[in-house]
Prior knowledge:
This protein is of the alpha/beta class. Helices cover 57% and strands 10% of the residues.
Amino acid sequence: MMPGSNAVGRWPARRIVLAAALAAVACAAGAALWWQTHRLPRRFAPVVEGRLYRSGEVLPGHLQRLQREHGIQRVVSLLNAEAPVTAAERRTAEYLGIEWHNVPLPGNGASTAADRRRILDLLTEPDAPPTLVHCAAGAHRTGLAVGLYRLRCQHWPLEDVLAELRRFGFKESPWRANMLDALAQEAAAICQEQAAQ
Length: 197
């Protein structure tokens, strides 16, 4: 046997192993992409089963699945309507015949009284189809929207609303204090309305 002939004989085996490893990586990446596109959005959960749902960012594949499996026929997006992912969501909703509404709130969840009224009007419309409200993570802006609904429609105490916020990943910080203030103001307004009756 000539010196080095063993190394030459191993070269094709190394190529096969390398090709197999690259194929495995490609398959894993493809599976991850398929999973990301076809599974439910992050933090997806019912608020009122069959009527109102919440989640994080919605990809086009998510919308198809949500429509098919949960009957979603209306989306309330709290994201910037001009962002590419939001524009893609809006186009997919239109293609699927899903109503699409936008109440854009900044990342810290700052909102005006008019923003909050619009959100509540959309979530409480009596004849509304099954609705999904969402932001990017499904924790902060979505938590504000769901919190307003819980206070106004389900008469939850503010403490329970805040506990649910935390369960869905709400991170308290001075940057997001406006959201907690908005919920406290809504709870106080409800108390005043009840006292006036």
